[in-house]
């Protein structure tokens, strides 16, 4: 694994000393030679050396010149980045930015193999082909083949994808074996409380963990502990304060007790160990004893977690805006003049322009009055719609899924040697073209109302669907100041879009 301190900062760190002569030949010399740039992508555990060697050999043999005025002295690279996952690749993004801006117009991009650009399906490279063609940039692999939108490139993409899956399968096997052996979890970042690779304990961080564990056992809440840590200036290695979720996750981690778990079910000696259960006992230093770990884990397990329901809870959230400043109005609670028998004030729900969110704070209206008005208004709007005797069912989504299954079935058939690679490529290209066409059709088709029956809308318990239905008629509605205390709500206090009047 490459640590952040070992990652290359300059091209001199990428080009081996033994190849400095070849690089100098490409940089210096006849300026009339075809200019080119290099793109390298190194996965975890790999190195740049073989990529540099092959690209230098090809560029020199083809009579090219390395253009050091772009990129990082003519080089774009990504360190420890996968080509088969949706992750950020700064080097690739920099390359594409320069291609789109025209900075690389007329130049060649040289890569060792096509899979350095991407190991994903051929459709991912379609955008790359379109952009480079428009920008008059050509791409070559180190064997001299031009990477363009053709059948060969499509086949190579399928093979690269298959190879990526094989590599992933092997890596999963290695990870399982490490877990069974009780070796520490592999990670690109240092585990809080340990030095890199779990070789030793970081005692300052370990003390923080032990104190937090003791406070939890004593009955303190995680939020209170986190607040105290913030006041004391205790922060994460990246300088950001600890959150309740961060501390809870750390204290639950069995690695601090030298216990090895795995991220999915694993079979050992014919017995399946469920995900998250202890697989083995490791040999790295322990910050907690096993009893201490199980004690704090049991306490934290009893704590009620926050609701995972992220659905809308307020009917007009995201619809109402302040007519004075344009800020979206927030739902809240406002004390009224009435008092309960115990002397406490009655609070009523309202929608208001919130100063803390950048609003003017001048507009506030009763939530009950607004919601009742919009429920009735939308009810009558649905009633006015023509009755559809036979509803048209949009099957576009089903057809898109059918075409995708067609691709998946073809890939499986190829792996089972039922079809050859040419047939697979043809099926894939045909299905992808149909999917693209169907998605275009889907965009222009009118979408049905979430609830198209007036009575069903009024009686629905699904606030999310009710809100989405209201938004189809009234996407944004402004709310004006009432004009004084005690003024009742009136529709004249609302500002509707022009097309909703």
From TrEMBL:
<dbReference type="Pfam" id="PF07508">
    <property type="entry name" value="Recombinase"/>
</dbReference>
<dbReference type="InterPro" id="IPR006119">
    <property type="entry name" value="Resolv_N"/>
</dbReference>
<dbReference type="InterPro" id="IPR050639">
    <property type="entry name" value="SSR_resolvase"/>
</dbReference>
<dbReference type="GO" id="GO:0003677">
    <property type="term" value="F:DNA binding"/>
</dbReference>
<dbReference type="InterPro" id="IPR011109">
    <property type="entry name" value="DNA_bind_recombinase_dom"/>
</dbReference>
<protein>
    <submittedName>
        <fullName>DNA invertase Pin-like site-specific DNA recombinase</fullName>
    </submittedName>
</protein>
<dbReference type="InterPro" id="IPR038109">
    <property type="entry name" value="DNA_bind_recomb_sf"/>
</dbReference>
<dbReference type="Pfam" id="PF00239">
    <property type="entry name" value="Resolvase"/>
</dbReference>
<dbReference type="InterPro" id="IPR025827">
    <property type="entry name" value="Zn_ribbon_recom_dom"/>
</dbReference>
<dbReference type="Pfam" id="PF13408">
    <property type="entry name" value="Zn_ribbon_recom"/>
</dbReference>
<dbReference type="GO" id="GO:0000150">
    <property type="term" value="F:DNA strand exchange activity"/>
</dbReference>
<dbReference type="InterPro" id="IPR036162">
    <property type="entry name" value="Resolvase-like_N_sf"/>
</dbReference>
<feature type="domain" description="Recombinase">
    <location>
        <begin position="191"/>
        <end position="306"/>
    </location>
</feature>
């Amino acid at each position: 694994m490459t640590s952040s301190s070992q990652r290359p900062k300059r091209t001199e760190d990428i080009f081996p000393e033994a190849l400095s002569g070849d690089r100098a030949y490409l940089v210096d010399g006849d300026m009339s030679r075809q200019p080119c740039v290099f793109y390298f992508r190194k996965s975890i555990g790999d190195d740049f050396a073989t990529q540099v060697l092959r690209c230098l050999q090809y560029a020199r043999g083809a009579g090219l010149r390395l253009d050091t005025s772009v990129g990082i002295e003519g080089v774009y690279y990504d360190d420890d980045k996968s080509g088969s996952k949706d992750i950020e690749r700064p080097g690739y993004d920099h390359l594409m930015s320069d291609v789109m801006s025209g900075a690389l117009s007329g130049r060649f991009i040289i890569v060792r193999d096509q899979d350095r650009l991407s190991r994903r399906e051929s459709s991912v490279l379609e955008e790359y082909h379109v952009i480079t063609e428009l920008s008059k940039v050509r791409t070559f692999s180190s064997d001299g083949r031009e990477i363009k939108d053709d059948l060969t490139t499509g086949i190579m993409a399928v093979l690269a994808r298959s190879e990526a899956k094989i590599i992933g399968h092997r890596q999963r096997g290695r990870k399982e074996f490490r877990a069974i052996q009780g070796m520490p979890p592999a990670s690109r970042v240092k585990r809080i409380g340990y030095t890199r690779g779990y070789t030793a304990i970081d005692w300052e961080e370990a003390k923080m963990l032990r104190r937090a564990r003791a406070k939890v056992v004593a009955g303190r809440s995680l939020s209170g502990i986190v607040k105290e840590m913030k006041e004391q200036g205790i922060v994460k290695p990246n300088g950001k304060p600890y959150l309740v979720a961060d501390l809870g996750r750390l204290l639950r981690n069995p690695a601090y007790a030298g216990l090895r778990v795995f991220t999915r079910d694993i079979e050992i000696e014919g017995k399946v160990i469920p995900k998250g259960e202890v697989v083995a006992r490791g040999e790295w230093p322990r910050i907690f004893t096993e009893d201490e770990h199980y004690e704090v884990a049991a306490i934290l397990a009893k704590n009620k977690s926050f609701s995972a329901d992220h659905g809308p809870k307020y009917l007009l959230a995201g619809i109402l805006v302040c007519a004075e400043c344009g800020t979206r109005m927030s739902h809240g609670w406002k004390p009224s003049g009435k008092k309960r028998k115990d002397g406490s004030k009655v609070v009523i729900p309202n929608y208001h322009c919130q100063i803390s969110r950048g609003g003017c704070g001048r507009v506030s209206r009763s939530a009950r009055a607004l919601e009742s008005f919009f429920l009735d208004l939308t009810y009558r709007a649905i009633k006015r719609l023509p009755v559809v005797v036979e509803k048209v069912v949009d099957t576009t989504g089903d057809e898109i899924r059918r075409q995708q299954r067609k691709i998946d079935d073809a890939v499986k058939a190829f792996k089972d040697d039922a079809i050859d690679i040419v047939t697979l490529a043809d099926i894939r290209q045909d299905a992808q073209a149909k999917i693209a066409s169907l998605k275009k059709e889907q965009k222009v088709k009118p979408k049905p109302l979430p609830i198209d029956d007036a009575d069903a809308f009024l009686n629905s318990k699904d606030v999310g669907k009710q809100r989405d239905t209201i938004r189809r008629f009234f996407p944004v509605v402004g709310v004006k100041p009432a004009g004084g205390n005690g003024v009742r709500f009136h529709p004249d206090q609302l500002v509707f879009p022009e097309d909703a009047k």
